[in-house]
Amino acid sequence: MPPWAVRRWSVKPIRMDEGPPEVEISTRTVWFASCRGVCDSIFCIKPSPPDGVFPFQLNRPGLGTFEGFSFRHQCAIFPNLSAQEVIDWDHDEQGEAEFWPSGDHSGIRAIFDRKSAVTATEIKILDELINDLGDSTENYLKIRYATQVHGKDLFTLTVGDIEDMNVFIFSGTSFTEIYRDAGYELFELYYPELYKLWEQTPCDGLTFDPRDFLESPSFTLDEVTLSNNDKWLIVHSD
């Protein structure tokens, strides 16, 4: 954060024990710039559910953190919240707010990178899908492809929908390398006889261009560069 961004910290915890849910509020005075605007106060609100209340618990705690903006206080929410804290946020008691991935989880960011805000329901659905599919980069990218390219609605997306997609996922340090490896692999898979003929021919004039092959009408492609700068290519056989 640049030197001009932070003026000072003034932490004043306030405990509100009257009526459920019990809420702890910390007011910190800072200069803070975010994609939702600039403010000079950040309200950190952490709810404690009343006795006997069991909030929804995620299957997987490692879904990254989320930035937030409080419409009640017209400022950013600090610090970033976990996925569980976003789900636990009470929009009636704590005020209307919106949240979006902070970027520290590359898979979550890839799925929601075209959305300005993410809801608790979307996080719950994604948690269930990943719990059933397995926590891997490939599965996050499959969900991204299903929703962003294939046009599936996350609210109705099922594990079966994802498993039925005929997609291939390749990764590497550069897209040139990825296209080369993917092109040769899929050429051999779909046209084994032609691939064998091409591989064994002594004729220098018989060439194969992996990128031209992949960019044919037979395939749909999705290039993804994750927040850690890893590059991935999703190939769907049409």
- Low-confidence stretches at least 5 residues in length (pLDDT < 50)? 1-35, 50-54
Task: Tell me the overall shape.
Answer: elongated
What fraction of residues sit in β-strands? Answer: 25-35%
Strand order of the largest sheet: 1-2-3
Quick one: biggest sheet?
3 strands, antiparallel
Helical run tally: 8
Overall mean pLDDT: 81
Total number of distinct structural domains = 2
> Into which percent range does the helicity of residues fall?
25-40%
What is the H-and-E element order?
EEEEEHEHHHHEHHHEE
Describe what you observe in this structure.
There is one protein chain. By secondary structure, this protein is of the alpha+beta class. The protein has two domains: 3-133, no CATH class; 167-237, no CATH class. The chain is 32% helix and 29% strand. Strand 1 (12-16) and strand 2 form a beta hairpin. It starts with 11 loop residues before the first strand and ends with a strand. Residues 1-35 and 50-54 have low confidence and may be disordered.
